[in-house]
Design goal:
The complex is a heterodimer. By secondary structure, chain A is an all-alpha fold. Chain A contains seven helices and no strands. The model of chain A has no long low-confidence stretch (mean pLDDT 82). The chains are: A mainly alpha, B alpha/beta.
Chain lengths: 186, 613
């Protein structure tokens, strides 16, 4: 298999697990099932996992594709520094969050999915990956040289007028007129 | 990784774009309400748009509507099927959650039947060949197989969710009726039936000392349910576009969990956990009349003996056994075709990491614009990668141009001696297997007198085949219908496609020899350049050949002004039908579609062909 960044798949799996966990929790609470307290925990844990996993990490190699509107989430997740950067912490966190789900049927599926996501994150951490925020790049403003008073206006590559002129002895074979007058000794 | 020019155009984004265009037209129309001429113009534009749209998309929309209709019908039918008397007592415990669980189950049966069919590409190829003589539009729908496969997958996910949620309620209610120990409570009484023989029971939860989670893991239905749902979730998360495009192998290997899915699906109903009254029992014990007297069932002097229950036999296998068989045949056919001998006759290393392989296979017949799947057992036994064919059908070999972008292509490059400078002997070249060709042929190109071909980026690959084929046709038969080709190539950088520039160069040379230099007019547009390159280009401004491509026609910079291009072509070919073919992004397709409509005046008609290369 190629060099996959496991964290990318772990992220998708964890996001799906969060949604499933929360949905199972909602069903458990709305139906007033036995053990609905675990379901309520499931809703909270599921929503938390979704918020944590929504911002995608920047890829080590290649272009990163953001999820829609993930910028604010990126800032929140970035604020926790090493807690969210390190994937060992995430693996352990997901493993811990998934355990209470196993006590109630409605959240069992969320529990297992989150457990699998935790394992994939562990694999990512072992491979040395970590979470990087995707931030918009601010380009430094281009410095215009002191001797240039008016920068060139035309975009397509075109030689400046001095180079476009032809030598005076080749005027007959030229295909265009000189933009500047030319004398033999210039 | 893959290197091919397939653009799968789905129906729904086009529908959306069409509506947006409609709205913008309508706003424009509103501003010009005064003139009746404007009204006629607007209406004719509408018919044109709808005509084009209907021709291209009509069949897809129809297929999708039929599919949705069957889903809706199955859902409602099986919902009602569990509202009959046989299930009266089951519903006493479960309520409507029973129907809510069984209806999506029926839809799941139907969709699991469908999901295997679009990926049987050899079967589809065979069908396409038989349909193509009747209707090219119908044949082209078969190219949208992957889109349909994804739609069916989403529907499976949706129905699985409904099914699971309904069963959560079912488990809870079954458990409740075991726990409310009260002989005056009908659900409890019902749950005690069958305690002696363990066959005629209604409630699959047989005791009150358990809990739903344990029951789920100890019944066949529960255990297989968990396993197949997990398989489904893993398949879906690894099929997300981000993962699929970056790490194809993870997607492909995880997708094989579908084997687990189908085995579990067939076994899911074996435990016969959905129970209703047996027909013999209903004959002697009418639930409508007897349910009130549940405290005296089976006692002396009543008309109501104890009801007996049984489970429904598993039905899923009847739905999926056919497609599973077809898919097994498909894999066998792929295996058989992969064993056919394919010989690499020539390996060409093009600049910028492009590898050209010329191959020969006995009985291989191709048409322009098709693609093949290639496998190299010495690199990977399981990976098949698609590549567009770049040779013309008239040649004695078939060729693919492979860009080296990932592990597989890199390994192929090394195996073919890419990093060595000596010429390799033929027997040292790796054995490859080829499956195909697939895809709808683009013979439409040859039906127009004047043709505009637009290729963007990697979309230029199928046009290699088209251009070569048109040239061969001209050389071999002198009355080829196509008289003039306008070719537009838009790319951010030409380096990756220098092989294509070489092809254009050789075509240019051959045309000059035959005095036909104005047969093909090509325009290459470089849409991005670096400052360093720009400096070099300035210096080379006066050179006769273009500094980038070495062709006589100079490279242009930026994007083409389509208005000008269309107007020029319209004035140069009055009264003729111009076919416009595109292989590129959807935004370009919309732009070109609009240009075709607006420049179709009296005389010149531009017909936009949305080809799925």
């Amino acid at each position: 298999m190629g060099k996959i960044e496991w964290a990318m798949w772990a992220n998708e799996q964890a996001l799906a697990a969060g949604l499933i966990y929360a949905t199972g929790g909602i069903v458990g609470v709305a139906g007033q099932f036995r053990g609905w307290q675990f379901a309520a925990f499931g809703i909270a844990a599921g929503v938390f996992v979704c918020l944590l996993e929504y911002p995608r990490s920047k890829r080590g190699k290649g272009t990163s594709v953001e999820r829609t509107g993930q910028y604010c989430f990126t800032l929140c997740v970035k604020a926790f520094g090493p807690l969210t950067r390190n994937y060992y912490v995430r693996a352990f966190l997901h493993a811990a969050l998934c355990v209470p789900g196993g006590f109630m049927l409605a959240t069992v599926l969320g529990c297992v999915c989150l457990g699998i996501a935790s394992l994939i994150y562990l694999s990512a951490a072992i491979h040395g990956e970590h979470w990087e925020p995707i931030l918009p790049r601010t380009e430094p403003p281009k410095r215009v040289g002191d001797s240039i008073k008016e920068p060139p206006q035309n975009p397509p590559p075109r030689p400046p007028p001095e180079l476009r002129r032809k030598k005076a002895d080749k005027l007959e074979t030229a295909a265009y007129d000189n933009p500047m007058s030319v004398t033999v000794n210039e | 990784m893959v290197s091919h020019g397939l653009t799968v155009v789905t129906a729904f984004p086009d529908l959306l774009l069409c509506f947006i265009y409609q709205i913008s037209l309508f706003c424009g129309f509103l501003q010009n309400l005064s003139s009746s001429l404007h009204l006629i113009f607007y209406l004719s534009l509408q018919f044109n748009i709808m005509g084009n749209f209907a021709a291209n998309e009509g069949l897809s929309i129809f297929v999708i509507l039929v599919w949705l209709g069957i889903n809706a019908f199955l859902f409602v039918h099986f919902y009602m099927a569990f509202l009959i008397d046989r299930y009266y007592y089951t519903r006493v415990i479960l309520g409507h959650a029973l129907s809510w669980a069984r209806a999506p189950a029926a839809c799941l049966n139907f969709n699991c039947l469908l999901i295997l069919l679009p990926v049987c590409r050899n079967l589809l190829s065979f069908l396409r060949g038989s349909i193509q003589c009747c209707s090219r539009t119908a044949a082209r729908q078969l190219d949208r197989n992957l889109t349909f496969h994804k739609l069916v997958a989403y529907m499976i996910a949706l129905h699985t969710a409904i099914h699971i949620i309904a069963h959560l309620f079912n488990f809870e209610r079954f458990m409740d009726s075991q726990l409310m120990i009260n002989s005056s409570y009908l659900p409890y009484v019902l749950s005690q039936i069958g305690n002696n023989d363990n066959t005629s029971y209604l409630n699959p939860i047989r005791s009150n000392e358990t809990n739903p989670t344990i029951v789920m893991f100890t019944t066949i239905a529960g255990l297989t349910g968990v396993v197949i749902t997990l398989a489904l979730i893993l398949i879906i998360t690894s099929s997300m576009e981000v993962i699929r495009r970056s790490y194809f192998e993870v997607f492909w290997f995880t997708h094989h969990l579908f084997i687990v899915f189908f085995i579990g699906l067939v076994l899911h109903g074996v435990g016969r956990i959905v129970r209703g009254q047996t027909l013999e029992s209903v004959a002697v014990h009418n639930p409508i009349k007897c349910h009130r007297h549940f405290e005296t069932w089976g006692k002396n002097g009543t008309n109501c003996p104890e009801p007996a229950f049984a489970g429904n036999p598993p039905m899923t296998w009847k739905w999926v056994v056919g497609p599973m068989f077809l898919y097994v045949c498909e894999r066998l056919v792929r295996f058989y075709r992969s064993q056919q001998k394919v010989v690499i006759t020539k390996v060409v290393m093009h600049p910028s990491k492009t590898l050209e392989l010329q191959l020969k296979k006995k009985g291989f017949k191709m048409e322009v614009g098709q693609y093949v799947f290639m496998q190299c057992p010495s690199i990977s036994q399981l990976e098949w990668h698609p590549f567009t064919l770049t040779s013309a059908p008239e040649e004695d070999h078939f060729s693919v141009h492979i860009r080296i972008v990932g592990d597989w292509t890199q390994a192929l490059y090394t195996a073919c001696g890419g990093d060595k400078t000596v010429v390799l002997d033929a027997w040292t070249l790796p054995k490859v297997a080829v499956d195909g060709p697939f895809g709808t042929a683009s013979e439409d190109v040859f039906r127009y007198e004047v043709v505009m071909l637009v290729g963007a980026g990697i979309g230029v690959t199928p046009f290699a085949s088209v251009l070569k084929s048109v040239w061969y046709k001209h050389v071999q038969e002198n009355n080829v219908f196509t008289k003039k080709i306008y070719f537009y190539w838009l790319c951010p950088e030409t380096q990756a496609f220098e092989w294509f520039a070489d092809l254009l160069q050789s075509l240019e040379r051959q045309m000059t020899e035959k005095n036909m230099s104005d047969f093909l007019s090509y325009n290459i547009y470089l849409t991005r350049w670096k400052d360093a390159e720009a400096a070099h280009l300035r210096v080379q401004y006066e050179a006769e050949d273009d500094p980038i491509t070495g062709l006589k026609q100079k490279t242009r910079y930026g994007k083409p002004n389509w208005d000008n291009e269309f107007s020029t072509i319209a004035t140069q070919h009055p009264g003729s039908k111009v076919g416009v073919f595109l292989c590129g992004p959807t935004a370009l397709a919309t732009a070109l579609g609009k240009q075709c409509i607006s420049h179709t005046e009296s005389g010149t008609e531009f017909i936009f062909n949305k080809e799925n290369f």
